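JOB MANIFEST
job_type = single_chain_structure
chain_count = 1
residues = 422
[input]
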Amino acid sequence: MVKETAAAGRDAEGGQRVLPLSGQLVFGRRASLLVSAGAVGHALWTSAAPVLTYRLYAQEWHLTNTVTAGVFAVYPISVVLMLIGFGGISDQVGRRATMLVGIFASLIGALSFALAVDVWWLFAGRILMGIGVGLSVSPSTAAVLEFSSPGRAQSAALTTIAAQAVGFVVALLLGGALTEYAPWPTHLCFWVLAAFLFILLGATWFLPRYLVGDAGSDRPSRTPFVPKGVRRAFAVSSTAMMAAYSFGVLVASLGGQVEHDLIGSHNALLNGAVLSLFPIVLAIVGVMARSLSPRMALTVGALVSGLGMVLLILAVSLRDLPIYLLATAAAGGAYSLLFVGGLQVISAVAPANHRGGIFSALYLLGYLSMGVLALLLGAIATTHGLILAVDLGAAALILMNAATLVLTAAMPSPASYQETGP
């Protein structure tokens, strides 16, 4: 920690005024970057935390596929509603304040799962988690960019994807182990998540306080907002984000049932380990993508994603586990390339006083596509079977990837989106 005694000034990005804190202890840049990355990672942890317990809830409370898909879908829908109403609020009141409220809501949501006695507690918990992530995901992403070395859009994008991968892996492996081998299989993993969120909440308190943007005609908006000058870049990034986030439906909502059918195992740790192949490959490819331009990352990501969806269709129809593992690995690599490429494109051009609103608009489209797809595929799986649901979901993703390829080919020279820092 350092003691903040300097007069109000501007950060290296030129868009924030730092409030002097009269001797209060605050974190420095590196610690603040770590805490902000933790806030990013909590979004994936809370999103994936119930994946391995859905089947247990369905058995215990006799739930249909439609109900369990509804529990999954209410989360991204809640995120979307928060992004619509308050997506740009961190550009007005600061990253720290918005993240504090968001992480607190996620904490209460985790406690709802930890104490759940029926399915309504699950709905309440997912709604609260959605509120928490909806408030914290865009300011934490912006904070990662702002606490990274000045001008390093690619470094910030890689930090963000690494934080997401860690959150996802912890949810699947730790959650799988606790669900399978620890007492209280549908509760203990959420007590652990709640403990992490409590620590993260305390650490977030010590982030520097920022006032983002200045009064005037270009005043930040409380709702998601994309300035005219960056809308072309936003179109590329948002299409890639929608394709990347829609993977979550096939991996988190339907993936557990697909794995159960292919592996034939009720072991939550084994199923979690197979699911964790997605974020593990995601992290590895994210490191390898450092040498790729945004255009190349988006192009390769869209092509690999399309290949992964074809493999997924074959795996489910042939009931072939090795092909399913290849499909999962391809999807993880594609997610990383699409996310890093898209985030780098928009980070390089986003004005500092509108970053919260721009990132909120980006996440809004990603979570909206995920929520709608989850509801549709859950209903199809219940009425017409899992195979048809997976086939239609894969086809939708192939169309999103085709759109990403078209927009990427039409965007300006890759040099326009390269980072300018040393």
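[summary]
Residues 3-15, 17-22, 213-217, 414-422 have pLDDT under 50 and may be disordered.
The beta strands are 2-3, 16-18, 25-26, 210-212.
exit_status = 0
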